[in-house]
Amino acid sequence: MREIVHVQAGQCGNQIGAKFWEVISNEHGIDPTGTYHGDSDLQLEHINVYFNEVSGGKYVSCALLVDLEPGTMESVRAGPFGRLFHPDNFVFGQSGAGNNWANGHYTEGAELVDSILDVVRKEAGSCDGLQGFQLTHSLGGGTGSGMGTLLISKIREEYPDRIINKFSIVPSPKVSDAVVEPYNATLSVHQLVENTDGTFCIDNEALYDICFSQTLKLTNPTYGDLNHLVSATMSGVTTCLRFPGQLNADLRKLTVNMVPFPRLHFFMPGFAPLTSRGSQQYRSLTVPELTQQIIRIRVIFTAIQ
């Protein structure tokens, strides 16, 4: 099989990563205990891309969860799909990065990175045919940006011929939790240019605009709503990897078709159909309708003019 090892780093990366696993588990008919309850052979045909089958016919995720403080790890472990993750694949510190890129990249993160790489090697070694790595993180925090970029540079050193894709939450001036977010992002982008093969850029400003606008018409969107949008997009991007199809059947083909020049690999994902709950029954999901939606700026997950 052509397996993908998924890594989620930092609070944001772990929250959207946990939601991603919830969404694709439902698509593949996997319940929170890892038991298959689906009704189609297509759900199992390429399930080994993201899941490992263990004793008793149960499935566990090929995922590694990383943070510099234990809080997010505990919430993921206690969440509805916490049992999908192997207990040995939780790697965390105690001090946190304090929204400081250098803490994540050079001090606290550097102390933890060897432990993380041990788990990466274990997961990669258990694969029959590793096709690459997929990482979720934010560019605004200290752990996701600092340690996330340190981790991809180490993975690139050890696996130079494997594809590395990232889903990066990019900071924006209108939706900001910390004043140092622009610095963290600036220091991270160089690492993404050099060490990733494809980076899907998503920012909270665009997500809030989608929620508030005529598209979804939410009056008070929460981070849960934003995470749901991100996970739906990640699910859509990876559908061609998880189910049989003619196009973009693995990470390398996806990258070859999307990247014109090696360093020009930053994508703006969009999602269609996006409609408010009250309007869903009045919309027809035809090809022209979907095409019209996807070329509109208001369904693009990166704020652009």
UniProtKB/TrEMBL annotation:
| Major place of residence | cytoplasm
Q: Which residues form the Tubulin/FtsZ GTPase domain?
A: 47-245
Which keywords describe this protein according to UniProt? Cytoplasm, Cytoskeleton, GTP-binding, Magnesium, Metal-binding, Microtubule, Nucleotide-binding
User: Cellular component per GO?
Assistant: microtubule
One Pfam annotation, family name? Tubulin
- GO BP term (any one): microtubule-based process
- Tell me one GO molecular function of this protein: metal ion binding
Cofactor(s) recorded for this entry are: Mg(2+)
Instruction: Read off the InterPro entries from this record.
Output: Beta-tubulin_BS, Beta_tubulin, Tub_FtsZ_C, Tubulin, Tubulin/FtsZ-like_C, Tubulin/FtsZ_2-layer-sand-dom, Tubulin/FtsZ_GTPase_sf, Tubulin_CS
PROSITE patterns, sorted: TUBULIN, TUBULIN_B_AUTOREG
The listed locations are: Cytoplasm, Cytoskeleton
Q: Which PANTHER family match?
A: TUBULIN
* Quaternary state and interactors: Dimer of alpha and beta chains. A typical microtubule is a hollow water-filled tube with an outer diameter of 25 nm and an inner diameter of 15 nM. Alpha-beta heterodimers associate head-to-tail to form protofilaments running lengthwise along the microtubule wall with the beta-tubulin subunit facing the microtubule plus end conferring a structural polarity. Microtubules usually have 13 protofilaments but different protofilament numbers can be found in some organisms and specialized cells.
Described function: Tubulin is the major constituent of microtubules, a cylinder consisting of laterally associated linear protofilaments composed of alpha- and beta-tubulin heterodimers. Microtubules grow by the addition of GTP-tubulin dimers to the microtubule end, where a stabilizing cap forms. Below the cap, tubulin dimers are in GDP-bound state, owing to GTPase activity of alpha-tubulin.
Q: Which family does it belong to?
A: Belongs to the tubulin family.
- Can you say what this protein is called? Tubulin beta chain
Query: What's the source species for this entry?
Result: Schistosoma mattheei
